[in-house]
Amino acid sequence: MRRMQISRRAVAHPQPLTLKRGLILAPLVALAMISATKARADAVEDFYRGKSINMIVGYSSGGGYDIYARSVARYMGNHMPGSPKVVVTNMPGAGSLVSVNHLYNIAPKDGTTIATFGRGLPMEPLIGAAKVQFDATKLTWIGSVASELSVCAVTQKSKVMTFEDSLSIEAAVGGEGSGSDPDTYASLVRNLFGSKMKLVTGYPGGNDMTLAIERGELDGRCGWSWGSIKATRPDWVSGPNKLRILLQMTLERSHEMPDIPTVLEKAKTQADKDVVKLIVSRQTVARPFAAPPGIPEDRKIALRKAFDDTMTDKDFVAEAKTLSLDVEPVSGAEVDKLIAELYRASPEVVARAKAVIAGSAGVASAK
């Protein structure tokens, strides 16, 4: 009977269950969170299964941006939920401005379209002269394949031997349109330092300018991707046709060319240095990829993860090495941070940078 009384008392006063209630609920909450996460993942996978992702390249085929894009496209779909195909299309025009305007205003905002375009375009609404139709801070940044070393270079046929020579000797350099590196950097060295470089603009892409250099229409380019030169014209890096590098369009000298001055070194005053830094900082995001603004958050996460995973994919890395493509990835979150920092520049620096880029002396159109 005593045992029965004790048992009844235990049932009437279940203190042990009260003490363990939190321990019981915690796994249930965790299980619910896992289920919700899985449901979101399943929804993303269901959305992309059987679909294609359109990857727009803002330049003509055969140039550096096109080569990078096609390499990324070959592997990125393998890392996406639902394994969609990634199809590359070229949309050249106005130094890739046409492609960004299309991405922002016309492309579907559902995660099925991404684009790669000139690294200078994110700064165009802030310091450029083109009629932009986008807000760089609202684009869905997926990431960048690499930081970039750009150069100002001419062929051996040019009379310009050093950058100082360009202050008195004219050299024709190619451009693509407002906001592109070749146009922006040529304007920078002309209008800030007094270089006699003549900008011939309007080429559809880097490959078109390279062919124009081979035909003798141009002496070189200012704002020329060193990685693209190595990938498309390795004989111009060494050998009898070796290019004459005048400037590194960077903030610090590269270990690959320690004897070539940077554009920052040519700036004599702090005001000039501030302008150079604002314009040249784009090199950190050298091969950007973005989606339209406002795509669903779960698909944004999936696109960013697939891009990051592609950057470490052993087959992609091996292909990039074979093609001499530099891979120093920058995440989408890091791109967001950089863009936000650049857009916080003082009004005085922004106004001066705009004036430097907008100078039009010595500009001609490509035929």
CATH structural class of the largest domain: Alpha Beta
Q: Could you say which overall geometry the principal axes of the C-alpha atoms support?
A: globular
Based on secondary structure, the structural category is alpha/beta
Poorly predicted regions:
1-14
Query: And the CATH topology of the largest domain?
Result: D-Maltodextrin-Binding Protein, domain 2
In round numbers, the mean pLDDT is 88
Domains, number: 2
Rounded to an integer in angstroms, the radius of gyration calculated over CA atoms is 27 Å
**What is the annotated CATH architecture of the largest domain?**
3-Layer(aba) Sandwich
CATH homologous superfamily title of the largest domain? Bordetella uptake gene, domain 1
Q: How many β-strands, per DSSP?
A: 12
Strand content: 5-15%
What order do the SSEs take from the amino end to the carboxyl end, as H and E?
A: HHHEHEHEHEEEHEHEHEHHEHHEHHE
Widest sheet, order of strands: 2-1-3-10-4-11
Q: How many helices in DSSP terms?
A: 15
Give a quick account of the main beta sheet: strands, pairing sense, barrel closure.
6 strands, mixed
Query: N-to-C terminal Cα separation, in Å?
Result: 108 Å
Helical fraction equals 40-55%
